[in-house]
Structure formats: structure tokens, C-alpha cells
């Protein structure tokens, strides 16, 4: 008879490690909102820091983070929405200025 108890999620993150990356540098992050299935990417992703989903207004942590690549152009494609960024809110100013 199969075990009827649900298995614990093996990918459940502890309170210290909420993101894959644990360094101090800014990274490129991939996000997926569990509320509305919206996906987005951000060049302003930090360790253990969330971004808010524009549709649901819930906090979402990146599921993947990779080092930023150097670019010839320094201007981002879109303006960084500070009001949706956990790092900007924590710092009290634009996280890109760190």
C-alpha cells in the first residue's frame, strides 16, 4: 500500500537561502509568479531579495540567477521599477547605485 502522506518539498528554501545565488553582487534573475504564472527577467536581482509581481502584487524570489555579462551599452532597456524591488526598498534608493 503506497504511503498516503505527502512528501515534503525537497526544494523548500530555509529562511537564510531564499535564492540560488548567495553572493554580494547584482545578478541577472529569472522570476516566475506562482499566483498568475507571469514570468520575467531582471538585471537587478540580488541574493535573498524578492521582486513584486506587477499583476498580483505578491513577492517573488528568483528561481535562477546568473552573473551579469558586460555590455557595450550601459542604458537598461526598461526603467527599473524601484517600488517593486525588495533591494531598493531595503536600501531606500536605487539598488543599481550600490
Overall description:
- There is one protein chain.
- The protein is globular.
- The N and C termini lie far apart (57 Å).
- The chain is mainly β and 98 residues long.
Can I get a quick summary?
Helices cover 6% and strands 21% of the residues.
Strand order of the largest sheet: 2-1-5
The total beta strand count reads 5
Largest sheet: 3 strands, antiparallel
Overall outline: globular
Order of helices and strands: EEEEEH
Structural class estimated from helices and strands = mainly beta
Binned strand content: 15-25%
Name the features:
98 residues, mainly beta, three-stranded antiparallel beta sheet, two-stranded antiparallel ribbon, 5 strands, 6% helix, disordered N terminus
Fold topology:
Layout: E1 27-32, E2 39-45, E3 51-52, E4 59-60, E5 64-67, H1 86-91
Antiparallel strand pairs: 1-2, 1-5, 3-4
Amino acid at each position: 500500500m503506497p504511503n498516503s502522506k505527502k512528501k515534503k518539498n525537497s526544494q523548500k528554501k530555509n529562511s537564510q537561502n531564499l535564492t540560488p545565488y548567495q553572493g554580494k553582487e547584482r545578478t541577472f534573475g529569472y522570476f516566475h509568479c506562482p499566483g498568475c504564472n507571469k514570468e520575467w527577467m531582471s538585471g537587478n536581482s540580488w541574493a535573498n531579495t524578492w521582486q513584486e509581481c506587477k499583476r498580483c502584487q505578491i513577492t517573488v524570489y528568483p528561481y535562477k540567477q546568473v552573473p551579469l555579462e558586460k555590455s557595450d551599452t550601459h542604458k537598461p532597456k526598461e526603467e527599473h521599477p524601484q517600488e517593486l524591488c525588495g533591494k531598493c526598498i531595503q536600501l531606500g534608493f536605487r539598488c543599481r547605485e550600490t
